[in-house]
C-alpha cells in the first residue's frame, strides 16, 4: 500500500570525471562488477567467445553462479582477472573500447562501473533495463542490446560512438553535479 505521506528520495553518488583526452583504445570489452545471475556475465562471455571478441571480466563471483560463469571463461577470448584494485580498473578503462552490462533486472541509476567507463571514454553495451535507455543513446555513447544479433551489430559499429560523447555523458554524473542534486534533496526535506 502506497502512503502519500512518505516520500522516497533518490540521489546518485557522483564520480570524479577527468578532463577529456582522446585515447587510443583497444578492441576489447570490459566488465567489472559483482558477478551473479542477474548480471548475465556468462551470456556476455559466451557471445564474445562465439564471435572471437576479447573480453575481460573482473570482480567477485557469487558461489551460486560460479559454474555458469567459469564455463564460459576460456582464456583465449574471455579472461577472468579476479578482484582488481581501483588503479588497475582505471588502467583497463583507459585502454578498452567497450564496457558492458547485460542486466536482467531494472537498475535505478547507472552503476559506478558504467559512470567510470563513460568518464574514460568507453562506449557502453547494455540491456535496455531501468534507467539505461535514458543514459545510453544508440550510436552516440553506446548501444542497447537484447540478444546476440544486437551484440554482433553493436560490435561491428563499435567505432561509431564518440569518445567525447561518452565523456560528456559521464559529466552528468560528476561529483559537482551530484552534490548539487544532493543539496536540493536536503533542502526539500528540511523545508518541506
Describe this structure in words.
This protein has a 6-stranded parallel β-sheet, with helices on both faces. 38% of the residues lie in helices and 14% in strands. It has 192 residues and is α/β, with parallel strands linked by helices. The mean pLDDT is 89. The chain contains 8 helices and 6 strands.
**On the 0-100 scale, what is the average pLDDT?**
89
Instruction: Identify the overall geometry.
Output: globular
Contiguous helical run count: 8
Helical content (DSSP H or I, runs of 4+): 25-40%
- Strand elements, count: 6
Largest sheet: 6 strands, parallel
Computed Rg: 17 Å
User: Strand-and-helix sequence, N→C?
Assistant: EHEHEHEHEHEHHH
Main structural class? alpha/beta
Weakly predicted, low-confidence segments = none
Arrangement of strands in the largest sheet: 3-2-1-4-5-6
Strand content: 5-15%
CA(first)-CA(last) distance? 23 Å
In terms of topology, how is this protein built?
Layout lengths: L25 E7 L8 H10 L4 E4 L7 H5 L7 E3 L5 H10 E6 L10 H8 L3 E4 L5 H4 L6 E3 L3 H9 L6 H9 L3 H17 L1
Parallel strand pairs: 1-2, 1-4, 2-3, 4-5, 5-6
Helix pairs in contact: 4-7
Could you write a compact summary of the structure shown?
The chain is built from eight helices and six strands, in the order βαβαβαβαβαβααα. The chain is of the alpha/beta class and 192 residues long. It is globular and about 55 Å long.
Q: Could you list some keywords that capture this structure?
A:
192 residues; 6-stranded parallel beta sheet
Amino acid at each position: 500500500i502506497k502512503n502519500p505521506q512518505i516520500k522516497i528520495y533518490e540521489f546518485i553518488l557522483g564520480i570524479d570525471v577527468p578532463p577529456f583526452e582522446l585515447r587510443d583504445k583497444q578492441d576489447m570489452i570490459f566488465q567489472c562488477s559483482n558477478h551473479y545471475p542477474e548480471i548475465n556475465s556468462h551470456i556476455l562471455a559466451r557471445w564474445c567467445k562465439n564471435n572471437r571478441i576479447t573480453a575481460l571480466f573482473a570482480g567477485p563471483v557469487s558461489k551460486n553462479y560460479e559454474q555458469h560463469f567459469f564455463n564460459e571463461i576460456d582464456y583465449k577470448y574471455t579472461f577472468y582477472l579476479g578482484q582488481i584494485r581501483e588503479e588497475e580498473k582505471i588502467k583497463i578503462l583507459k585502454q578498452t573500447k567497450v564496457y558492458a552490462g547485460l542486466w536482467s533486472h531494472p537498475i535505478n541509476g547507472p552503476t559506478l562501473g558504467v559512470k567510470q567507463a563513460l568518464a574514460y571514454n568507453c562506449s557502453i553495451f547494455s540491456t535496455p533495463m531501468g534507467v539505461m535507455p535514458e543514459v545510453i543513446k544508440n550510436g552516440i555513447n553506446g548501444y542497447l542490446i537484447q540478444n546476440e544479433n544486437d551484440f554482433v551489430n553493436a560490435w561491428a559499429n563499435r567505432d561509431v560512438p564518440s569518445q567525447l560523447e561518452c565523456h560528456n555523458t559521464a559529466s552528468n554524473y560528476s561529483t559537482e553535479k551530484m552534490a548539487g542534486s544532493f543539496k536540493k534533496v536536503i533542502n526539500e526535506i528540511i523545508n518541506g
